[in-house]
Amino acid sequence: MGTTLLLKDRLVFFTNRFVFSTFYVLVPATLLCTYLYLLSLTQHSTTTTYHSSFSSPPPPLPSSSPFSTEKDKVYHHSCDYSNGDWVHDKSGPLYNATTCGTIKESEKCISNGRPDMGYLYWRWKPNECNLPRFEPLTFLQLVQNKHIAFVGDSLARNQLESLLCMLATVSTPNLVYKSANDNKFRRWHFPSHNANLSLYWSPFLVQGVERSNEGPYYNTMYLDHVNERWARDIEWFDMIVVSYGHWFLLPSVYYEDGLVIGSLNCPDLNHTQMDFYVPLRKVLRTTLSSIIERKRSKGKSEVDVIVKTFSPAHFEGDWNKAGTCLKTKPYKKEEKEVEGMDGEIRKIEIEEVENAKAKASEFGGFRLDILDVTKLALLRPDGHPGPYMNPFPFANGVPEHVQNDCVHWCLPGPIDTWNEIFLQIIKK
Question: Which residues cross the membrane (predicted)?
Answer without folding.
Answer: 18-38
